[in-house]
Amino acid sequence: MKKWKCTVCGYIHTGDEPPDKCPVCGAPKSRFIDISEPEEASAPEPAAAAETVPEETPAVESEAPAETVPEPESPFKDSRYRQLFEMMTRYHGHPISVHIPNGLLPVVVLFIFLAAIFNLKGMATAAIFNLGVVALAMPLVLFSGWVDWQNRFGGAMTNVFSVKIACGLIVTVTAWLLFIWLLVNPAVITTPQSARVAFFVINLIMLGAAATAGWYGGKLVFRE
Length: 224
Ligand code: FE
Description:
There is one protein chain. The chain has 224 residues and is mainly alpha-helical. It has two domains: 1-70, Single Sheet (Rubrerythrin, domain 2), CATH 2.20.28; 82-221. Helix content is 58%, strand content 5%. It has a three-stranded antiparallel beta sheet with strand order 2-1-3, with no helix packed on it. Strand 1 and strand 2 form a beta hairpin. Helix 4 (93-118) runs antiparallel to helix 7 and helix 6 packs antiparallel against helix 7 (196-221). The longest helix has 33 residues, at 121-153. The site of fe (iii) ion (FE) has 8 residues, from loops. Residues 36-76 are annotated as: Disordered. One of its GO terms (molecular function) is iron ion binding.
């Protein structure tokens, strides 16, 4: 039996062959390397850059990137915001920020449906405020997700990441659309009108997209 490592997410597979597709990040078979031999393992390992700092410490402290870095470098090595971006990944900026929409969105949708069913104006107002926080948080969520994707996964475009990016964009667009809609016409929740079905459907799309992104995000974080 051999050991294979996904060079995108670091998932370890044991078997004679690597899997056709990484079960964690969706990377193809070709992205797996044989790590059965310890000597071979250290050479091609782009995913390691996030966890360990391969270069000597002065390179991190000074703004100037080291020229003699043998390992794959930070994707932000030429950016003046490199330290900020690396800190965002090290201190889990994306998983933390993503809990704002993932915590509030189910509450928003629940409040909107309860307000509609029981004609609760106060609950409708609460939903609008919460949705506003979600809409405002989404740019930070998208940005920290992009930074994490570059830092931890080398920006590899596998199906898991394309789904996450699509879901993040759907949540952002629908949250802003519904929030502006409610600012213009808050009565759409409690007053029967022709656009109300579309309004509820968009709420469910938003919730589904957030749940899908969260599901794949959880798989990437808890990859064991
Ligand atoms: Fe993977």
